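Review form for a predicted model. The reviewer records the input and the model, then writes brief findings.
Reviewer: anonymous (R2)
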Amino acid sequence: MCGIAGILYFNNQKVNFQPEVLSTLKHRGPDGQGYKAFENAIFYHTRLSIIDLTSQSQQPYLLDDNKCLVFNGEIFNYKEIAKFVGIDNAFSDTIVLAKYFDKHRIDGLKELNGFFAFAFYDVLNNECFIVRDRFGEKPLYYFYDENVLTFASEIQPLLILLQKKLPIDYDVLYTYFRMHYIPGENSILKGIKRLLPGHYIHIKNNRVEVQKWYTLDNVVQNNDFEELLHTAVQRRLISDAPIGAFLSGGIDSSVVCAIAKQHKQDLHTFSLGFKDLKLYNETKDALIVAEYIKSVHHSFEISVDEVIQTLPSILDCIDEPFADSSAINVYFLSQKIKPFATVALSGDGSDELLMGYNKHKVFLLKFFPYLKFINLIVSPVFKFFPENRSSTFLNSIRKLKKFSYSSQLNSIAQYIYLSQWAEDSYIHQLFSIKLNNLYFYSLFEKYKTLNDVELFNRADTEIVLVNDMLYKIDFFGMQNAVEIRSPFLDHEVVEFLFHQPFKNKIHYTQQKYLLRKTFSHLLPSSIFEKKKKGFEIPLHSILPHFIKNSECLSEEYIKEQRLFNYSIIQKLIQQLPSNENDASLKLWAILVFQHWFRKFENFIEL
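Model under review:
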């Protein structure tokens, strides 16, 4: 895991080394840094040493002095693919990748098992390839025009390379406030794009082409789920640096930890919870699993005061508006485990592939059609109850109201309603400028011909997983130089689970049915019986202390900024004590954007 960046000039402009690029990427690679300049290009790399801790794998890595690789990620089967390039006793996936890609180019990518974003520059052929992994586990942003192409693991170093102000993309801004993260190809700044998962950029003689190299329509031949996941876990235990596993006590992480323990006897597991807040603390559940599988367990508890004190640092590191508040937990957990591990396994990906979220309960109607009749009778009653995530009872009412309303919608509208965090009407009230929702709705256009199960399957994998879950574990794990690996995202596991029939995902009242059925022998039955709980934080307790001291939410700043209607923000602040209408989540999204805006103000064309 590392940080990468680079710039290619198309107009014979003088190459200029910019040390700030390396400093802004240092958190991604504190173990080493370097750059390599050529006549028309320069490449940057910061290293987090995981496979091969020696200097032989330092990057940028030069091959024959005229080929250069900068690489972020891991190739788990590097020892197997080494044989394709005549390397015996391979010790470095960097060296293997450089020689392998030089020989096989794009056609060889299908043999790689791992997660990666890399650039390979061939000086003599005036050619560069920039590649992103199958499912977008590793980030890659880019910008190009007639003069340059720049790329980086994060937006800030890219802007430093570009030396150019860019306007906010207001269509994307609307989408952020609707979803609380930014999906799709476009970023918050016009012109900066994400390289989509399974795609690559080919630059040849100053001509730029973006093409796809992988499609999820591939179907894995092995149909033994247990064997596939065991192999995926084994691959992700490859590390020369200390390695452990996140353990929440939920099914996904518990299964991963139970398998990992079979292959690593001294496995360290880690859990995180809030002191004195039972609703936000699953450390006891994690401890039950840890004792059962006999791992070396570390249980960390944090306080609301600790979050309040650290929140400014977390907000300062944000590179693009991202308001999934569970990112705070990822930040703290990766910070706490750093003395014990540089790499951690996680259970991410299972919910998307096996329909494990609360929103997927709408499919219970397929098994229990009489629920529709009951829903018609009781739904009018729901409107008299308030909604509040900080109360177990009122949160259940909130979920029932959402289920009730969504069951009356068509497939696309239903998916959007169950996936969004705010409605269109609220966003138009919040902003003093007119925002366009066309980009937001365009994200779902390609799913219109799919049935409801296929729609949820594909959109969850291509939108939610890539832009929310995987962004979160990469970006906020790497703030503390911790690499997070998910065995469920081994491409063979993904291809197997994605194409499973619906009955293996939801079976009557059981979600993630195939996972429960396959691995029930590994864990106590209580783990499979407990209700799903997200990795949540008590925002309603944290924000009041922070908002009253936040200059960027003051009336003066809001009016000077001329983006928001202050009256709406004021109303949300008034609703915060009761957390009515998800006031805490909406305020968090505003707060995140405001801190991002202030941090990047010098890069924004206003």
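Findings: The two ends are 35 Å apart (CA to CA).
Further findings: Residues 452-478 form the longest helix (27 residues).
Recommendation: see findings above.
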